[in-house]
Amino acid sequence: MTSTEILAYIPSPAQGVWHVGPLALRAYALFIIIGIVVSVVWGDRRWVARGGTKGTVLDVAVWAVPFGLLGGRLYHVATDWKTYFGPGGNPVEALYVWNGGLGIWGAVFLGGVGAWIACRRRGIPLPAFGDAVGPPILLAQAIGRIGNYFNQELYGRSTTQPWGLEIYERVDSNGRLDPLNGVSTGFVEKVVHPTFLYELLWSLAIVALLVLIDRKYTIGHGRLFALYVAGYCVGRFWVELMRDDFATKIAGLRVNTFTSAIVFVLAVAYFVIATKGREDPATLKSNDDVDGGNDAADGDASGDADETDVNDRTADALDVHTSDKKAEEEGSTRG
User: What is residue 10's DSSP assignment?
Assistant: First the structure.
């Protein structure tokens, strides 16, 4: 079956990697980077609007992003360990992040640890920070799903729906099958549900909903972040039910299905019991911003003191001049 025989379906990209000399340009990595940049820029604007210090989100991202990438990879390897450590697996490939495979649950968890460390260093509350960056993070996830499209991964079961996705056979320069790094031969191996696209669209819908809720209600103390997590879990739950690619299972269900359900319950519980309302903007200022303000105040006080000293010295000089003039007049009278 060739792509020309099926015109109604969504075609996959011919390749996901382009080689420029020794450099390999990977669409998967490119869209992850774009997502990170977008989330940092938008997240910083949201943080400043809530009363925080400009530039804080980038400072926190320096900690959160590496932790998140590590956590995402660890979760993927742990839940798909047979691919790397089972029969025929290559343990070294567990380090090949560029080949795809980042578990969002591990990324959010360890990324949160990195953010917690950075927030403590800056002296700002982590829950409030989470409320500011929650929607941007989910937008970054949606952008990252485009990378799955180029990698021909994260798709569902076979379908005959007109929006089905064509999965092409890809081969390397030697004609060997290479789904990730190869180039399409034009042969359609199968037509599947584009579950990566379903998740992308669901994520965008949740982002819009979160923004509307944040504008209408004074929600804070991490409760908006909890809504982001809960909303994403609902979409991920039904997406996982549509997939049939290899995955570790428990009681016949994919591990990610269980994870989605458990995390959803925890997120809803936090939303219910967390403090209502929104934080005082003054509590969102970073340590360096507060210290800068104190230094300025100290400078003003020092300036006032210096001005007082100058005035005192001027007054003393006038007194001396007046005394000398009076003495000269008395001497002239006596003479």
Answer: B
CB 168 within 8 A of CB 183: no
Is residue 256 a contact partner of residue 236, using CB atoms and an 8 Å limit? yes
Q: What is the pLDDT of residue 104?
A: 85
**Residue 8 carries which DSSP code?**
S
Q: What is the tens place of the pLDDT at every residue in 63-108?
A: 999 999 999 888 888 887 777 887 877 788 888 776 667 788 889 8
Phi then psi for 94, rounded to 5 degrees?
A: -65, -20
Neighbour-count burial for 156-178, b at 16+ CB within 10 Å, e otherwise:
beebeeeebbbbbebbeeeeeeb
Residue with tokens 């034009």, as numbered in its chain: 186
pTM, two decimals, is 0.81
Burial (CB < 10 A; 0-12, 13-18, 19+), residue 228, is: buried
What distance in Å separates the CA atoms of residue 58 and residue 129, rounded to the nearest whole number? 12
Structure tokens at 40: 């940092």
Q: Which of 113, 106, 111, 108 is nearest to 79 (CA)?
A: 106
Q: What H or E segment, with its residue span, contains residue 167? A: strand 165-171
For the record, the structure tokens of 17 come out as 């990697």
CA distance readout (Å), 148 to 3, 23, 180, 198, 249: 20, 20, 10, 12, 22
Q: Indicate the length of the chain as a whole number.
A: 335
